[in-house]
Amino acid sequence: MKKKTIDKFSHLFKVLSDPNRLSMIRHLCGCREANVGELSSCCSIDVSVVSRHLSKLKEAGVLGARKEGKEVFYDLKAADLAKMLRELADEIEKADCCR
Amino acid sequence: MKKKTIDKFSHLFKVLSDPNRLSMIRHLCGCREANVGELSSCCSIDVSVVSRHLSKLKEAGVLGARKEGKEVFYDLKAADLAKMLRELADEIEKADCCR
DNA sequence: TTCATATTTGCATACTAATGCAAATATAAA
DNA sequence: TTTATATTTGCATTAGTATGCAAATATGAA
Question: Which of A63, A91, A94, B73 is deepest in the core (most CB within 10 A)?
Fold first, then answer.
């Protein structure tokens, strides 16, 4: 496996390993999208904390964002995330890598 | 997605997000197996630190271990890890979950 | 048993990241 | 412009984890 691949996934995994972030992802899995305040109340996390988590998830390509008035709606980029995970799975099983 | 699934992957991702652990995984990707001392010298990490990282990776199901005399040889469980990642990818894309 | 080597564990320190309050910013309505 | 609401940012504190030395343990050789 290339070091570049390693670094890419190191960051993704760090972002995905926080319980509060996963809790938010889980909620976004059950609805099309949600704004910062909704996620704050449904996950019982301070709104400032939610805001910071959301920007990290967006930066990592896990979430998309859409601004509407003074609200920001986030949605899970499920297809992209699934693709990244499958690519890593393929990489790990490559014969020239792990044998 | 079930909370149980979330917790499972939260732990896996935390384990996979550390740079030293990934460095060790990367090395194990290029050889069949390696013992604690080998990984310590090739990754330039103190042997006690390597030992602790290895036990975390083993506990998470990422590595297997085989004791031979006074040495312990670790190997990457590539197929298992790839399977876990693909299962999560499937879960994320499930229609009743993300829509 | 004593000695040498491999690994693990105890413990104190250092690092990194999460948390939550308050203040700042952004946007729309009055 | 003033007011109200949503979100972000600054900052200090806290929490969790990694690190590395030294000591303890495990195993085999002498």
Answer: A63
Whether B90 is in a domain gets the answer: yes
What is the domain-level CATH number for residue A61? Answer: 1.10.10.10
Residue B31 has φ and ψ, to the nearest 5°, of: -145, 160
Question: Hey, is the C-beta of A95 within 8 angstroms of any chain B C-beta?
Answer: no
Number of domains in chain A: 1
Share of chain B above pLDDT 90, in %: 80
Residue B71 belongs to some domain of the structure: yes
- pLDDT given for residue A1 in this prediction: 76
- State which residues of chain A have pLDDT below 50: 95-99
Sequence length of chain B is 99
In a domain, B83, yes or no: yes
Put simply, whether A4 touches B (Cβ < 8 Å) is no
Residue scoring higher pLDDT (B27 or B97): B27
Burial of A69 (0-12, 13-18, 19+ CB in 10 A): exposed
Residues 23-52 of A with CB under 7 A from strand D: 35-37, 47-48, 51-52
DSSP 8-state assignment for residue B31 = S
